[in-house]
Amino acid sequence: MTKSVSRAGVVRGKGPQPRARTGKWRKTNGAKSSVAAFADKRPRRNQRNRLLGVLAALLTLVGLVSVLVRLLPADLQALPWLPDLVALTPWFLIPSVLALILALRAKRWFVALVAILCLSVQVYWQYPFFSAGQCLPQEAMEAVSQAKANHSDAYARVMTFNVYKGRADAKAIVALVREQRVEVLALQETTRPFIDRLEAAGIEDYLPYSQVSSADGRYGNGLWSATEMTKPADDDVDSRASLMPGGTIRFKEGQVSIRFVSVHTTSPSPGQWEAWRQSLDDLARLTSRTDRRYILMGDFNASNDHAPFRSVLADRFQDAALQSGHGLTLSWPADRVGVPAFAAIDHLILDRGITAGQLEMVRIAGSDHKALLGTIAVD
Known about the structure:
This protein is of the alpha+beta class. It is built from 11 helices and 14 strands. It has a 6-stranded mixed sheet with strand order 5-6-4-3-14-13. Strands 7-8-9-10-12-11 form a 6-stranded mixed sheet. Helix 1 crosses helix 5 and helix 4 (about 95-105) packs antiparallel against helix 5 (about 110-125). The radius of gyration is 33 Å and the shape is elongated. It holds the Pfam family Exo_endo_phos. GO terms for molecular function: endonuclease activity. Keywords: Endonuclease, Hydrolase, Membrane, Nuclease, Transmembrane, Transmembrane helix. InterPro entries: Endo/exonu/phosph_ase_sf, Endo/exonuclease/phosphatase.
């Protein structure tokens, strides 16, 4: 008996037959599967972008706050905890960079724009420290590299160091003075027992002239010189922070006189924020004394990001780190295990006509500061 087949593909007498799977059907089914998989991934991608966007916004806010605080005038920067926050200004480059990366990844364009603005301002503030404005003369570098320092030329190796309540290693200080051929030394937070240890270690063999002052009979500041200091004074600043001794040292066979001052301002610790600002204001008065040229060395408890410190510089003085393009002189803290120094609060400040270079930071046992050394050239 012959079987007939209908157009519908049904064999009469056998019931409906399954339709053969064609390549076209499989392709269509695969496309639908891809669309479904893409649809499944879209919520996860959106969720990830939202998370990245939130992180970018938070990091941008951190960078923005740091910029705004740095822009505050001196009076407002003396508000509680703000001096500590401003001291960290260079480090806020990091969250700004991270914020920009995350914002671009999450396609949060407004957040990215704000992050770029914060980053640009921060780079504008910090880049000059890595771009030399004035170079130390070659003659100066050659002069201080000699086996014995020439005390009558126009060059000298200088050093400043906070000895942390007299706890620093006196022998190490004298050894560094000898090795670096230091001709002028400024120390802060000295004590009588520390001075005794310093003298026992032989400081007078290299720097026989000194001026040490103490306001409270416990902690003081001092200057040591390889050549005689004229007009030594217990206090050159008249500051409420501490007695800051000064002395005049002659260069170029006595033709040029420079007034050195060992500086130590009030620390911006809790309850001392206003006193900190006032002690920097005391230093700022030196800008009006035009009868002499200064080199200020010491622990200023402030960085170039602090408005009161910039008032000290005004349009007269220069920070040696900024002038030379050495980079940030991160000097504190120096005694914490696993924590690098992150604040540039020790400085070598120069008057007009004085150039500095060859800056170096050295860790000395017993202190929470690093020593700052530099070479100066006097015109």
